[in-house]
Amino acid sequence: MVAIVSYGAYVPKYRIKVEEIARVWGRQAKSISAGLNVFEKSVPSIDEDTATIAVEAARKAVEHGGINAKEIGAIYVGSESHPYAVKPTATIVAEAIGATPDLTAADYEFACKAGTAGMQNCIALVNSGMIKYGMAIGVDVAQAAPGDALEYTAAAGGAAFIIGREGIAEINETVSFTTDTPDFWRREGQPYPGHGERFTGEPAYFRHIMSAAKLLMEKVGTKPSDYDYAVFHQPNGKFPVRVAKKLGFDKKQIEDGLLCPIIGNTYSGSTMLGLVAILDIAKPGQRILAVSYGSGAGSDAFDITVTDKIEGYERMKLKEMLNKKEYVDYATYMKFRGEFR
Amino acid sequence: MGVARYWREIPARYNLIGKKCQVCGKIYFPPRSICPTCRRKSIGKMEDYKLSGKGTVESYTIIYTPPPEFSDKVPYAIALIRMDEGCYLTGQIVDCDLEEIHIGMRVKACFRRIQEDGKRGAIYYGYKFRKV
Ligand SMILES: [Zn+2]
Hints:
The structure holds two protein chains of two kinds.
Chain A: E1 3-10, E2 14-17, H1 18-25, H2 29-36, E3 40-43, H3 50-65, E4 72-78, H4 89-96, E5 104-108, H5 114-127, E6 133-141, E7 156-164, E8 169-181, E9 184-185, E10 194-195, H6 201-220, E11 229-232, H7 239-247, H8 251-254, H9 260-263, H10 270-279, E12 287-291, E13 296-306, H11 318-323, E14 326-327, H12 330-336
Parallel strand pairs in A: 2-14, 4-5, 4-6, 11-12
Antiparallel strand pairs in A: 1-7, 1-8, 2-3, 6-7, 8-13, 9-10, 12-13
Helix pairs in contact in A: 1-2, 3-4, 6-7
Chain B: H1 3-8, H2 10-15, E1 17-21, E2 27-28, E3 46-50, E4 54-63, E5 76-83, E6 88-94, E7 106-116, E8 123-131
Parallel strand pairs in B: 6-8
Antiparallel strand pairs in B: 1-2, 1-3, 4-5, 4-7, 5-6, 7-8
The site of zinc ion (ZN) has 8 residues of chain B, from loops.
């Protein structure tokens, strides 16, 4: 068997309200918030980036799991906002948790699902016996052009999972659904992404998540009602609610993992942070469906069962971290993001 | 700061690895190759020692006129922190209102971006402190 041994997450302390962004661009905050089901988003401080968030999340995972970092044989960092184009974030994380030098490490890029792709790699490496523990991190300081629709949601945060043989939650199965779908992209050297406007919904997000979820449930012989919790990628607060309904999940199953309304879209961090929020409260025997989505496009689906070991595990309590927040205005937000340089 | 110096100091900058004198037990940060108290007796007896990252603000100052590379961060607080292991460190306090900072405040090390060699150069990471 393969399981989540430990996890950690980090979301910067600062927030900006949708209202404040809408004020600057002369838009109706109420209709934007209602349309997206997003009210505020996290903002990285001036000295925070994908590497610092990854390190904070990774350190929590190591600490809470009581793991000897030298036993981590692989680290994968999935992000679309790595601080360097060439120079892996994974090496910075490996050094900062004390896992170097006896390990393999690499950065992954698959829009918002690069972190879950890293999880699948860790699962395979643990299963094959190549490594004892693997660490997969999904993290972003999401980019959005000032004034673009994405600016209301593009947020910062990340989560790290340590995968091993036995742990707090068994990963029963994982499947993926992948196609060439140009719904969202960022060309080399460009600071901001481009997107296919309305095209981002049906043929992209909904098709891939639903196909991966159905494929997984068919493979393990489950139905939506077999799950206590479900988490889907959260580009806004509306899509995951709608996809859950379409698949036959009810609000109760998804509400604990739905973070987008209060922190925005953390891109590669999104699904994994939702899973953290669920693991923070889940009981032994409970079953979780997690489905990520990355533009371009693909979805990774995971069937997870919480084990008895969660009882003796000191959980990080992500929601307590999210409650410690401070609001900034639009100018400060732009300064923090280095937009004035 | 040059890339080579940064690289050499990564264990200290990322993980607060100092030195412990095996003769008198005193902990030093930044790392020292000889204990100033035990002198020759300490040669070969200075071992790597990882600080817990926890400490108390002993004194602090607010920077309004910074070196040019930190000009986008003013005003910011630099504190002298007495680490729980007994040694002293200087570091920036982040994620905290400047009015809230006080002598005796408990802090813990966090991982942040310290500076960068312009837009094309290396990025230097290391420890700063935040309120516990
Ligand atoms: Zn000594």
